[in-house]
Design goal:
The protein folds into two domains: 108 residues, Nucleotidyltransferase, domain 5 (2-Layer Sandwich), CATH 3.30.420.40; 164 residues, Nucleotidyltransferase, domain 5. The N and C termini lie close together (12 Å). The protein is an alpha/beta fold and 292 residues long. It is globular and about 55 Å long. Helix 3 crosses helix 8 and helix 6 crosses helix 7. The chain is 35% helix and 21% strand. The chain binds zinc ion. The site of zinc ion has 6 residues, from loops.
């Protein structure tokens, strides 16, 4: 039986079919339609093209167990819709759906950089900060589907320069995502230096030796380490796997273990931090794995 995965993103939808051995036997990418109905029928067509098999779908946001409606997605047309129900009707099969960062985490835990570790904490650091937690090969989703939402844990141990805490789109203040993300990096750099440039540009300048850019990345790293050390106080994962655009920065990942250790409860913890193996394909591969 093939495992079909779909990864819905803001600009593209990826499809994959994995053989029983885990090899990709079908892959397709299309642009994301603008309307909700367009998205539902496009996913239906991708699954038809992939053929028979189980269907797992990863998408931004999550399913409310209470109402059966999709919520918190940055693809706004999907919010408040019976997304899973409509997709099942379009596809004609039962589908499993999960938050996209959770799919990423599952993929990396099963046959990616977290393979072989019992407890895997996954971060995707891009425009936003996504997270996922996998224990013994199973996603930890939680009673309300909110486990592993590391981006909306609070920035731990803020220093004097970090007050007042920044507002988050979720309605609270001080969420980790507002600091540990490409968007957060750019805003922090602007606040401190007055230079309005993208996260990507800051990284490029830091590599060129720009002192201000290096300082901005150092602040990001320190905050990232605090967020990770805070998570270690709850689950002390065997490995942290880092994906997303900022994970392409080897120096960011390389220095994290020693910084996490500094913020750990004992002050000496040895954190293992690795970069994701499957890159942006982790999302669709993890969606295909939702059926096990
Ligand atoms: Zn938030």
């Amino acid at each position: 039986m093939k495992r079909i995965g779909i990864d819905l993103g803001g600009t593209k939808i990826d499809a994959i079919a994995l053989s029983a051995a885990g090899d990709a036997v079908f892959e397709k990418r299309i642009a994301t339609p603008r309307s909700y109905d367009g998205i539902v029928s496009a996913i239906g067509e991708l699954v038809q093209a992939a053929g028979d098999g189980t269907v797992g779908i990863g998408a931004p946001g999550s399913l409310s167990r209470k109402t059966g409606l999709w919520r918190n997605a940055n693809i706004l047309v999907c919010n408040g819709k019976p997304f899973q129900h409509d997709l099942q009707a379009a596809i004609g099969r039962t589908v499993k759906m999960e938050n996209d960062a959770n799919c990423f985490a599952l993929s990396e835990a099963i046959d990616g950089a977290g393979q072989g570790y019992a407890v895997v904490a996954f971060f995707t650091v891009g425009t936003a900060l996504g997270g996922g937690l996998v224990a013994n090969g199973k996603l930890v989703v939680g009673a309300n589907g909110e486990a592993g939402e590391f981006g909306h844990t609070a920035l731990p141990w803020p220093n004097e320069t970090e007050w007042p805490l920044l507002p988050c789109f979720c309605g609270k203040k001080g969420c980790a995502e507002q600091y540990v993300s490409g968007t957060g990096l750019a805003r922090d750099h602007l606040r401190v230096t007055g230079e309005d440039v993208s996260g990507k540009e800051i990284v490029a300048r830091a590599r060129g030796g720009d002192v201000n850019a290096v300082a901005s990345l150092t602040r990001l790293q320190d905050r990232f380490a605090r967020v990770a050390a805070n998570i270690a106080c709850v689950v002390d994962p065997d490995v942290f796997v880092i994906g997303g655009g900022l994970s392409e920065l080897p120096e960011l990942v390389e220095q994290l273990p020693q910084l996490i250790s500094r913020y750990s409860f004992s002050g000496t913890a040895e954190a293992r931090v690795v970069r994701a193996r499957h890159g942006e394909k982790s999302g669709v591969r993890g969606a295909a794995r939702l059926w096990g």
